[in-house]
Amino acid sequence: MAQKRHVNYTLKPAAIDNAKPREKAYALTDGGGLYIDILPGGSKVWRFKYHRDGRREKVTIGQYPSISIKDARDRHEALREQLHKGDSPARAKQQEAAERRAVEARSVDFRAFAQRWIRETLFARSETYRAQIARWLDSYVYPAIGDRALDKVTPADVLAIIEKRQDTAVTAERIRVIIQQIFNYAIRKLLVETNPAQPLRGSIARPGVEHHRHLSEKELARFWRQLGEQGAHATTIAASRLLLLTMTRKSELLRSKWPEFDLDAGQWDIPAERMKMGKPHRVFLSTQAVELLRQVYQLTGHGEYVFPSIFRGSVPMGDVTLNHFFKRIDFGVPDFSPHGTRSTAATLLREHGFGRDVVELLLAHSEKNATVAAYSHMELAPERKRALQFLADYVEKLAAGGEVIPLRAA
To answer: What is the model's pTM?
Structure first.
């Protein structure tokens, strides 16, 4: 048991107030192991340093001036009394902190903290990205653990959630990562000490990364004809056709809103926050694309989204809708995906004489070469407009089975 002795405290308020920060932290000693750390950032922190069982331990009391000299010395005396009784003040403080965290964790359910995580960590991400995360949590996670206290969520709970999505392994792993990120944030906020999603990495086998296959002209003709013979909803068929005719990404098309379109001018302006590269992108619509959009407008023009969910009109059509639709189309290419429409269109245009710079602009790719990027401000609008009209005409003739006379770009 440590022997308790009287302490002659020496620090004066003026000495603390006048202490200036230095490049490295330094201490002003008060007495009996009590001292105040002057940190490089300007903070001044009371600490108690002592020896117990041959080892040196340290306890942080708090910041000055929130904790005055008198308060710090009173707390110091209490800690010395604790040490005199044979207890470790440092260990006792750690236990108190753990108990506070456990109480707080029990008072915060997963749903409430997940929403806090979105607000506090995803504020710099696009509205579309945040909405996608919220939809996944609403659909796949909250029904299982939304009302569960943070510290009561187990690896078994997380495994049950992702195993329900094992038919779409990429989505299952993305959901696991989201839960892991939420718990990592909870750990940083000292609400929990373990992450139930961390040990489950790799529990759902993901398929190897594959390049999206593009279609030959004969395959493209069969695909285009089969689109209208699947008995799908009209907006699903239209979205599938427009995906190729606009050469946009699936998320860019499915989350499009009617105010972005000027059908009379044949233009679609996609805002930067929905673009992968974070830059606004203009699509010069072919006459066929405009006609398709006018037909869709008759069905969905009363709402915000061009392609709303068939079941919930207030949200856009889900990505999986097109994924499942493409799998249903039997035209001899079972592994063709929605993203493959971009490479199909790009390949067709390059084979018919359209330049790389035009095609890259149509795909809204970011130029990696800094020198070339400096000249990318020229939009090549006439060439892009001609390329997309050529694409629509060519696909239409292919699907009709007529002889196509290549019209090469000059």
So the answer is: 0.52
- Kindly state the tokens that stand for 233: 């909803």
328-361 pLDDT, tens digit each: 888 888 878 898 999 999 999 999 999 999 999 9
Same domain, 253 and 387: yes
Is residue 2, in this structure, part of any structural domain at all?
no
- HSE-CB at 70 with a 13 A cutoff on CA atoms is 0
Integer Cα distance of 102 and 97 in angstroms: 9
How far apart are the C-alpha atoms of 304 and 282, rounded to whole Å? Answer: 19
pLDDT value at position 371?
43
pLDDT digits (tens, 9 = 90+) for 78-117: 888 888 887 777 787 777 766 666 666 567 889 999 999 9
> Which of 58, 76, 103 finishes a domain?
103
**Residue 82 CA: distances (Å) to CA of 62, 88, 167:** 18, 7, 58
**In DSSP terms, which residues pair with 60 in a beta bridge?**
47
Which SS3 state, helix, strand or coil, does residue 55 take? strand
User: Does the pLDDT value for residue 315 go beyond 90?
Assistant: no
207 lies in some domain:
no
Three-state secondary structure call for residue 217: helix
Token pair listed for 187: 């750990």
Phi-psi region of 86 (alpha: psi -120 to 50; beta: other; left: phi over 0): left
